[in-house]
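Quarterly update, task 2.4: 3-isopropylmalic acid-bound model.
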Amino acid sequence: MSHYQIAVIPGDGTGPEVVREGLRVLEAAAGRAGFTYDLTEYDFGGERYLRTGETLPDSAVSELRDFDAIFLGAIGHPEVAPGILEQGILLKARFDLDLYINLRPVKLYPGVETPIKDKGPQDIDFVVVRENTEGLYASTGGFLRKGTPDEIAVQESVNTRKGAERCLRYAFDYAKRPDRRGELTLVGKTNVLTYAWNLWWRAFNEVGEADYPQVKREYAHVDAVCMWFVKNPEWFDVIVTDNMFGDIITDLAAMIQGGLGIAAGGNINPDPGGTAMFEPMGGSAPKYAGQNKINPLAAISSMQMMLDHLGEKDAARWVEAGVMHSTERLPSLAAGRMGMSTSEVGDMVVTHVKEGTVTEESGW
Ligand code: IPM
Ligand code: MN
């Protein structure tokens, strides 16, 4: 029987409420699948920063390294200046734990309204693999003559062959999964950013030709992809791109799958012994904190991604079936509201994970 060590960072605002539902779903899934786990909670976030001045201390990073996975609620506090918590917690975790994959499934579930006219669940089902440790996020550059009329600011994009290649390999492997179509689209800007995207382009074709001949390779410019996400989202299966483009296109993608209440993501180091951190895409929504109103489905779907990552494939499928069961039944998700409380939605998924029947048709 497998046993996992899981770190939990509920964080700020509505983070703790949605994390609670995610953990209830974990408990139900573990009971059914027959694995066990220990939870260790950490209080990183805005409150702790305001109290102690600490974001994510180095000692915590070395502790986090040893967990099988990290479950994060939300980071963001209205009284903390923008950038401090993002850089000090989220980006620090990504860099220091070398979580070089940012994985974002984009799937429109039944009953969820998309702003894209005439598109349904059969049209919106793709995955974005974003490089998560390099590019413009590497924070290299600087000022010249700062504060003068002749000021210069340089912000460099760092692209290493190793960094691109490990990300591409993960994406190629993902495209080979039985639930994908075997198509990988590199999203870049080869026509203008001729150094960075030339490296990516060569690595994409060399790795693909040598080791993944069965995966169909496509290329698209990032601006065109923004257009196609809206016009023809059904064209995409697995997408791979760099850090900055990935940041931008995954927000657009979250909107076509029904918004931030639904969108889940993972920050993953897929190497042996690597850890991974899963989080709902929405922020801390301080306005709604403590009201039992926020949609927990994004957090529950991040839990599903965590289970999938841990290798608990059945449990992950049960959780996804539970999420789909509830999106089909939520009275007013289509109108952008839930019509149910946070914990009632959690109840619905938990019950389905515990008791849902296994049918040939639903595949579980
Ligand atoms: C995301 C977020 C982060 C990013 C911010 C909060 C630093 O927007 O996870 O996409 O830019 O990567
Ligand atoms: Mn973003």
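Highlight for this quarter: The chain has a mean pLDDT of 95.
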